[in-house]
Amino acid sequence: MPPNQAEVDGTTILTSPPLQAAAFDTLDLHYWRWFYAGGGPGPDTLRAEVSSDGTAWRLVEEVAARANSWQEARIGLEDILSFSDTLRVRFVASDGGGESIVEAGLDDLDLAGEKFVCDPFMPAPLARPNAVGDSLRASARGWDVLLSWTSPPRDAGHDPATEFRVDRSTRPDGGFSQVASPTSPQWVDTGGAAPSAPGLHCYTVYARNSGGLEAGAP
Ligand SMILES: [Ca+2]
Ligand SMILES: [Ca+2]
């Protein structure tokens, strides 16, 4: 048989059935290919293409050089198209530009990928902390008010505080509202002692963690 019989003339296309790929986050297309082109004008090519819908095709690779031997290819598809449950792969062997001897072969094709499943991490809730109690101290530093207190200790029924709620009022019997939530047992009320902020300054501090505020906090 002459070598230019039983070889590619024009275009020969091999298309996969639809593949269920929507669940994947990555996919590698892997195969071995044989491509031979010679004896005439080009372009003579072997193209690998992929499609999400079987209609619009995107190029994976195009081979024009004759290898005349089995060559391995492995190409990640996640940057080429979005994955669907109708993903198709096709190979297009073309003898263009006039008769050439064009031969193409494929073997050992597989698609392998990964899906990443991330569950939200839910740490076990802490037991709410002991109270700051009467450890709160206030002192003036220039025109600022420096507050400091003792971080309440952990014991059998209480976990450490992870932050504190600082409330402020202009009278001791009420009217408090939150002004800060520091994570260490101190806070500076900047300008709290300035001439522009005359009058009484009352502060309360409550310990808090993921289990809630200290017992008795409003
Ligand atoms: Ca041909
Ligand atoms: Ca040709």
Bound molecules: calcium ion
Which range does the strand content fall in? 35-45%
User: Which architecture of the largest domain would the CATH scheme give at its second level?
Assistant: Sandwich
- Tell me roughly what share of residues is in helical segments: under 10%
Instruction: Specify the number of helices.
Output: 0
Largest sheet, strands/sense/barrel: 4 strands, antiparallel
| Name of the top-level CATH class of the largest domain | Mainly Beta
- Helix and strand sequence: EEEEEEEEEEEEEE
Regions with pLDDT < 50 over 5+ consecutive residues? none
Termini separation comes to 96 Å
What coarse outline follows from CA principal-axis ratios?
A: rod-shaped
Which fold name fills CATH's third level, the topology of the largest domain?
Jelly Rolls
Q: By helix and strand content, what is the structural category?
A: mainly beta
Number of strands: 14
Oligomer: single chain
The tally of structural domains comes to 2
Strand order of the largest sheet: 1-6-3-4
Radius of gyration from the alpha-carbon trace, in angstroms: 36 Å
Average pLDDT metric: 93
Features:
mainly beta, binds calcium ion, Jelly Rolls, 4-stranded antiparallel sheet, Immunoglobulin-like, rod-shaped, 218 residues, 2 domains
